[in-house]
Design goal:
Chain B: Keywords: Endoplasmic reticulum, Lipid metabolism, NADP, Oxidoreductase, Sphingolipid metabolism. Chain B: It is found in: Endoplasmic reticulum. Chain B: InterPro entries: KDSR-like, NAD(P)-bd_dom_sf, SDR_fam. Chain B: Belongs to the short-chain dehydrogenases/reductases (SDR) family. The structure is a homodimer. By secondary structure, the first copy, chain A, is an alpha/beta fold. Chain A has one domain: NAD(P)-binding Rossmann-like Domain (Rossmann fold, 3-Layer(aba) Sandwich), CATH 3.40.50. Helix content of chain A is 55%, strand content 12%. Chain A has ten helices and seven strands. The first copy, chain A, has a seven-stranded parallel beta sheet, sandwiched between helices. In chain A, helix 1 links the parallel strand 1 and strand 2. At the A-B interface, helix 4, helix 5, helix 7 and helix 10 of A face helix 4, helix 5, helix 9 and helix 10 of B.
């Protein structure tokens, strides 16, 4: 039986995925990085290798699109398991974000985002689940987003893909809990990554203003919290006090892994819902005012 | 200005969609039924027409797959709006369900379910939204499911598609609220429809046992409740909205300054 943890990280070549890989490597794990771009993978591999704590550790890189074709993903993960042994923890971090008004988003983006963020998590999970069930052990992580807990202005193409991950995680956890496999869903806030920089290019004003109520955090910080929660087997992983409140508020029918967590959710629900209603009110205000503003300036332009 | 409601129901040829169409028709609406199968559409049209309350009412049938190609959906809804006038309420009821263990579900079902249940709601919504925003009125309904509120054993392919509808509805509502368009998300439980019968064929034992804690209800009952919820909540929301209209703050000032600066910058170029 194995003494070393084998971790497979999709989307491991940049952003939160890369930081999760580094965090696990620092704890002595063997890492497989999965992403599409080979150059970025090799770059990330070098960064991860710097954090080795012993000389037996290995970083394997595999280039594949996890959202396009299941049989490809299956064969690639099979190879990885042959080289580094069965996967102890799968980190589904492959994903992309975008923001824009519903009728301005290119129509094919709805499908594309859902494929990358959702199917790109379904396929790797499917590829490792049988082995994990046989071994009666494992961890599966889904990196959702705060946009997977609340739908905000500008995220009509993104939020659904992140909400979908939660539905998948809840159903899956119920199926595999007797097999001692734990699912963790991470809900990071806006995180300072290349992905966010890309998203900011088309971000509507309203989204920007609403996002300002919550800050931007660092991927290293997210990675630490998420890895700790996954190892402990916590279903919900949130970052910061805002994240804590949002997770407690939106816990719905999610499972809990500790009685304390359950008690906290029960006790804080009423208060958090009250606060949430105030936030929602202010978001609606922002949206309405931007709309009025835009129409006044359109009318002014017409008069000229 | 129109006095009659024009309702477009996707998935209107059977199950909950058909019952919603009947419920609206009983209240004098003009209905467009959208589904793939022409025979089922004509069958449903006959059933809906029986419930007419006056002889001006019309049921239009359109056969299209709402999940495959946006431009098809767009053109078909354009036709419908030319015949019956702009859509007052869009009911996104096109969808299918299935249950099975995660590793036993055929791999392509994850994609298929998401396409039908999610994209099949995105595309019609996209096709009506611009007109609704121009008219400053409208209702958009998404038929999710209790499986879109809780992920249960056996629904790893279905729950995500229904959770996704909620994410879409929440984001969309925030964008269109100032335009007086309201979004309703329906969360029906197991409902006695052909869709459920199909789902039961592959339902795992665990799912069956868990579902027994909640009953099966009738689509007519679901339709009544869902239609009422879509129409009735307007007054309260309008009152709250009026409070927002009456106040200024620094965000508004910042928006104004930003726009004037960018207008001035544009002029200089």
């Amino acid at each position: 039986s194995k003494t070393v943890s084998t971790i497979l990280v999709t989307g491991g070549s940049s952003g939160i995925g890369k930081c999760i890989a580094i965090e696990c490597y620092r704890q002595g794990a063997f890492i497989t990085l999965v992403a599409r771009n080979e150059e970025k993978l090799l770059q990330a591999k070098k960064e991860v290798e710097k954090c080795a704590i012993n000389d037996k550790q290995v970083v394997l890189c595999i280039s594949v699109d996890v959202s396009s074709d299941y049989s490809q993903v299956e064969s690639v993960i099979k190879q990885a398991q042959e080289k580094l042994g069965p996967v102890d923890m799968l980190v589904n971090c492959a994903g992309t974000s975008m923001s824009g008004k519903f009728e301005e988003v290119e129509v094919d983006r709805f499908k594309k985002l859902m494929e990358v963020n959702y199917l790109g998590s379904v396929y790797p999970t499917r590829a490792v689940i049988t082995t994990m069930k046989e071994r009666r052990m494992g961890r599966i992580m889904f990196v959702s987003s705060q946009a997977g807990q609340i739908g905000l202005f500008g995220y009509t193409a993104y939020s659904p893909s992140k909400f979908a991950l939660r539905g998948l995680a809840e159903s899956l956890q119920m199926e595999i809990k007797p097999y001692n496999i734990y699912v963790t869903v991470a809900y990071p806030p806006d995180t300072d990554t290349p992905g966010l920089a890309e998203e900011n290019k088309t971000k509507p004003l309203e989204t920007r203003l609403i996002s300002e109520t919550s800050g931007v955090c660092q991927p290293e910080q997210v990675a630490k919290i998420v890895v700790r929660d996954a190892v402990q087997g916590n279903f919900n992983s949130s970052v910061g006090p805002d994240g804590y409140m949002l997770s407690a508020l939106t816990c719905g029918m999610s499972p809990v892994t500790s009685i304390t967590e359950g008690l906290q959710q029960i006790v804080t629900m009423g208060l958090f819902r009250t606060i949430a209603l105030f936030y929602l009110g202010s978001f609606d205000s922002i949206v309405r005012r931007c709309m009025i503003q835009r129409e006044q300036s359109k009318a002014a332009d017409k008069r000229e």
